[in-house]
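pasting for the record
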Amino acid sequence: MCRLSLSSRLALLFAACTAVVSLFAGVLFSHASEAHFVELDQQLLDGKLVGLRRALQDIQSSESQAKLADELSRQADLSLRVIGSNGQRWYDSSAKLPDKLPQKPGLSTINDDGTDYRVLNAPLFVDKPDSPQLTLLLDITHHQHFLQRMQHLIWLTMGLSALATALLGAWAARSGLLPLRRMSAIASGVSAQSLNARLPEENMPPELAEMAHNFNAMLGRLDDSFQRLSAFSSDIAHELRTPLSNLLTHTQVTLTRPRPIEDYREALHSNLEELQWMAQLVNDMLYLAKADHGLLMPKREPLELAHEADVLLEFFAPLAEDAQVTLSREGNAHIEGDRTMLRRALSNLLDNALRFTPAAGVVRVRIVDQPKGLSLTVENSGKAIDGVLLPRLFDRFYRADPARQEGSSEHAGLGLAITQSIIRAHGGQIRCESADGWTRFVIELPREN
């Protein structure tokens, strides 16, 4: 099925609108002209009727007949028929008058053998019920020809106007849609390698400027997502390359010559540790993929955050004792959420805080209950994080420590990304603040209605 272009549709729409307006104006003018002619004919016939009645006061006298002839001679296109009270035809001013004429009183229009007449029926004597009837006939053929010519002119004007409007509309639409074609040309050149292309927003009509702005914003989001995806893929390969290389090297060395059973057992245990780390990495990636697609559906159960925090602090207590770090908790609040997911998020923050807190430092959990939600802060003393690095802390595989080790089997840089996904799945937000020797991860969770 052939589809019309937007320019063609606008051109046809302009032409149709012009045709309708021209037709409406022509019909209105035609009716107004016809009504005007009827009014003129009515006035003319009424004036002649008065003179004819005076001339026919005594129709039998020669003087009356002379007056009648004189009255009719003044209007060449006027004819008269007189019919007696008994229905007999008394007088015809012309032999070409139609045999059958309207009998109803008042004005009417007839056509006889190509000639148009305006007919007026009236009694000769107004005060006599058996008065003879006068029928005045005015030839209006020239009026009708004028109206017909005017109608033909209206149709011709309408057609020419519609054609001219269609052509001008097509030109105007094509000129007006030029920015759209430019946008289409730029959009057709956008690919994964050229997501930095942007549509020009200046000198555009307001309607298209807003669309161009939104399109540029979409390209910006796509470019950012593509860059993140590329970096993500690179980071996955980066993280898996070293453990896989270690597994291959270790296995190859082990198989180079026969060894005691204990050596094989030790090699398998070593490989198992690497495989367990890789399995955990894959599970974390699947978890983040679910979060990206909105598939994390937290359960809603009543939780006492002080109790949940105390359980985790007790779990990390031996590690904190070895590192000479003091653990504490302040405040309490109740919330409905997923216990497993929130414990995982809080555990990631505590583990992260313990790793970067120096000896004799402090790791503190503060819970603040608020009318519309709650705030949970995990803060630790120690060296502050550079403000430039704060926005990237929640990126996957990102480590603020510049001495990054490839394929570290302890920390892959996914903990904070997973924590952020969990908090967002609960409708909250998380941010990091670092200044004056303290680093704080602040979680804000809304109160369920």
